[in-house]
Design brief:
Two copies of one chain form a homodimer. Chain A is α/β, with parallel strands linked by helices. The first copy, chain A, folds into two domains: 137 residues, NAD(P)-binding Rossmann-like Domain (Rossmann fold, 3-Layer(aba) Sandwich), CATH 3.40.50.720; 185 residues, 2-Layer Sandwich (Dihydrodipicolinate Reductase, domain 2). Helix content of chain A is 31%, strand content 23%. In chain A, the strands form two sheets. Chain A has a seven-stranded mixed β-sheet, with helices on both faces. A six-stranded mixed β-sheet of chain A has the order 9-8-10-13-12-11. In chain A, helix 1 packs across helix 9, helix 4 packs parallel to helix 6 and helix 4 packs across helix 9. The interface between A and B is large, with 64 and 64 residues.
């Protein structure tokens, strides 16, 4: 492979669950890096993280961290992105931000490479936003169907993993599970109540009795697909899974979408792995098998028995990878003109 | 309390998860029993089960088991119900069957006391069917809204517990969880694959790529509500929860149903406990808090942001109790003219 360019890449929030995943994806995708800067809070400075057989030291994030940086991948929370995103962009870096800070800014493109990579070329603020994990996997699955028949309405129930809340949440899930199995009272610090062997909703409250997570699915879907007329009915739910989000989706289009047409479209769709067996007990995609994978797994594609012409599907993806780290790295690859 | 009558009650499948729960509910509800017959397979004969401070011996189920029985509560699987249901009915017992054997028989009423107790009075075969657990909790929540505005369409995604698959499934979930926490490979015998920390669909395949569980939610809902025009779009999913089913429901009516009206109706509805706080992080009903309770818990009542006039709710209940044992005992109580 002939390489014309090599880049200086900064990862902000390198020690977090998504940051570490970004390093793995940069390595796996053989991203052409001449310098890698791992940035985090001062308390993580000095830590070394493995990369390409060696180790790279973490340095404290400052306003000077971005001089000479080509791509700055942010995953350190919305307030860090709000403060340092514009600084990195002013220093000339292309900022790819995994937080919610910039997603709905009309001057910031919201990008899923398989869906709207071209949007990343127009970035008045020098910032590109990575969508919310639940939205990414949904739009990857729905985009080929939308192109064929135009989406009108989406109903979606999520089965979201604890890793979306950070590594500490996964640890707490495991500790709670251990306590329940031992007949002890589980302790809840990260979660508002017991998550182990339970089903809860733990996002911040948004407008109209919806969670912020639900509103993200409404607004981000419209922005990524570039169609404000699409209506979305979301219910987001956390389940006691370590990693990997699942979604039960019902979609309605301007014309009937038959399962066979949908399967043919999904089979050819970029980033999608289709399970054609619409229902086999225990078969189909599940979050354990999707973990560590970059693709969006789609199964249970069938006619909506309650809505003539409507379609149902079950969509699973690794929320830390395609839902965050992989998508961010793919944006950088795409902008660099490399296969993603 | 003045008691006019006292009854001979048989519990078929007394040693199973639902059978044991039936004994607890009969005891808690102070059901007027003059004789309790615990029936099971020959290998369980001789076992003693606790009841009202004493113990009752299990005897082997035979064609002669039902002589003199007033109420025969069946929960031993569809084949036992198909064989012994008519025998018990011929012996004069009112059969209340928890299996799927008779549910869709036009000569067998399908009854949820809060919804259609009157239907239990017309039973040409002497058999009354207890609906599927997922259907029961859904119709209890939707009935008061249906009465007010007439249901047109229901979309439902389930988060179903492992106890619905029997006690052995709960044990396997716990063993698998232990293995995962210990870094060992979990073994799957009852489940088609690892259920711990995972999300799967493990019901039998039905028609048109739907699971049998999904078809039950379609057909049983129409039969119980007595309205074949209601369309239902179900996706049933098993989650790693020991007990207690959750359901994300979207409902559309002949006229707009506003959340405030729905909450007022649900607050007065029999068998419903309403959480008026539509969204509080981690608040609202969950399967751990619903376990051991007989009511159907309804929360997250809010306008469907994607469907004008539509309503969303989140419905949780103990699938072994209201979803099975409690509902069966309530039918007997109702027929005996007692409060249920």
């Amino acid at each position: 492979m002939r390489r014309v360019m090599s880049y200086t890449v900064a990862v902000v929030g390198a020690t977090g669950a998504v940051g570490r995943e970004m390093l793995r994806v940069l390595e796996e995708r053989d991203f052409p890096i001449k310098e890698l800067r791992l940035l985090a809070s001062p308390r993580s400075a000095g830590l070394e993280l493995p990369f390409r057989g060696g180790a790279v030291a973490v340095t404290a994030l400052t306003a000077e961290s971005f001089v000479g940086v080509d791509y700055a991948l942010f995953s350190a929370g919305a307030s860090v992105s709000r403060e340092f995103g514009p600084i990195a962009a002013a220093a000339g870096a292309v900022v790819i931000d995994n937080s919610s800070a910039w997603r709905m800014d009309p001057e910031v493109p919201l990008v899923v490479p398989e869906v709207n990579l071209a949007a990343a070329q127009v970035r008045p603020k020098g910032i590109i936003a990575n969508p919310n994990c639940s939205t990414i996997q949904m739009v990857v699955a729905l985009k080929p169907l939308h192109d064929a028949a135009k989406l009108v309405h989406i109903t979606v129930a999520t089965y979201q993993a604890t890793s979306g809340k950070g590594q500490a949440a996964v640890v707490e899930l495991r500790e709670q599970a251990r306590a329940v199995l031992a007949g002890e009272a589980p302790k809840a610090n990260i979660f508002p109540k017991t998550m182990a062997f339970n089903v809860i909703s733990d996002w911040k409250t948004g407008a109209d009795d919806y969670s912020e997570e639900e509103w993200k699915m409404v607004h981000e879907t419209r922005k990524i697909l570039g169609d404000a007329t699409i209506s979305v009915s979301p219910t987001t739910v956390r389940v006691p899974v370590e990693n990997g989000h699942s979604e039960a989706i019902w979609a309605r289009f301007e014309r009937p979408m038959l399962p066979e047409e949908a399967k043919d479209l999904l089979e050819k769709a970029p980033g999608v792995i289709l399970d054609r067996s619409a229902y086999v007990p225990g078969g189909g995609p599940d979050p354990r098998m999707a973990t560590g994978r970059d693709e969006v797994f789609v199964g249970r594609v069938r006619a909506d028995v309650g809505t003539p012409g409507g379609l149902c599907l079950f969509v699973v993806a690794d929320n830390l990878r395609k839902g965050a780290a992989t998508n961010a790295v793919q944006i950088a690859l795409g902008l660099a003109g490399l296969p993603y």
